[in-house]
Give the backbone structure.
Amino acid sequence: MFNRIKGTRPALQSLAIVAVLLFPALLWPAPDAWLVPVAVVLGVVGLDLVWSWTLELPELQRHVAPNIPVNRESTVRISVSNRTSRPLRFEVHDEAPNDCNVVGMPRTLRLAAGESVELTYSLTATRRGDARFGHVICLLRSPLGFWQRRVSLGEPRSVRVYPDLAVISNYLELVSDQHSIRMGIKLIQRRGEGLEFQQLREYRDGDTIRQIDWKATARRQTLISREYQEESDQRVLFLIDSGRRMRTRDGVLSHFDHALNGMLLLAYVALRQGDSVALKLFGSERKWVPAQRGVSSVNILLNEVYDLHTGTEAADYISAAEEVMVKQRKRALVVLMTNLREEDADLLPALKLLSQRHVVILANLRESVLDTTAQQIPMGFEHSLRIAGTFRHLAQRQQYQTQCLPLAHIVLDCTPDELPVRVVNAYWQIKRSGKL
């Protein structure tokens, strides 16, 4: 517990009065006339200072989840109890982590003897990683109001700021065909039956004749169909650019944050299908997460990437592709997420290398502001130049992506908000085409 006392405005005013009284006494000595009021003022202020140290303290305890999502409001609770025998009036401040927006602090309380309350305030973390709370601060006024005692209570603690898991919870409806269509997830008809037999069931409208099991139909005297599921035990490998291009912010998140959100959603879907998921980060952050299985492995991915950020280093596509070819010997679906420019000449040989063994999805993030600017009506010369430059950039971008088409199975050109749905659709397209 850390204590500190500082004078309030009344204390400073009282000391100013003392100074005013002492100044004439120094010029015209008259001890009996001047020392009495000076002693009275100093005595009252000093007595209040002593009282401030004897004040009993409330009990404060902070309650916050160990993991909180980035850019989403979280609730912090503070339990406050007055275990003393007299009323207390004080202010409560919480030392929230840096890079957090706080609403609802500080708070002024007046608690009767034995009274307890629970305060809540909202906290929004603006950056992933480890965040540290300091102490809960209690500010108590002295009985006469000349002093303020600052006491640090509660224990400092750290929390983890994760990518927003709503990217998964909002898409759990993927298991429902109707909801999937409404959300933009396309259900692509598979070529023929599935690759793995799952079960027999009664015939349904829309089943093909090849699905009918004639032996089972003869035994049961009713049409019986074979039901298939997508082939499991396949491999998905995420190749995510953490270089300087991914620092671009689109809304409140960077392109790198959007890529992590898209990775988490597709990882969840793939793990739920029984596939394995691996992760390779290249650029400013370099990390290899080996293949994981089971839906619970999403937590492993979260813990591996929650505190990683982009830097100023450019991405090296060729080195990343070479490492993938060494570490991923078996055929896999490689999902490359980046933000391309026409000067990224080393991407083409990297794609050529990867496609020799793997199925490649290239997800190229496009700044939303480009679409907004391209749709504007020119309003003046400078505005016209800006729009013309945007169209030129989009044309060069499209030309470069056209060169990538023969080297990747699917090329996605999408804004960050579109990325999660687009990569899931591409996954299902590859999965149901049998290319893996």
Remarks:
- The first strand starts at residue 2 and ends at 7.
- The radius of gyration is 33 Å.
- Confidence is low (pLDDT under 50) at residues 174-183, 185-195.
- The chain has three domains: 1-162, 166-173+180-187+231-433, 196-229.
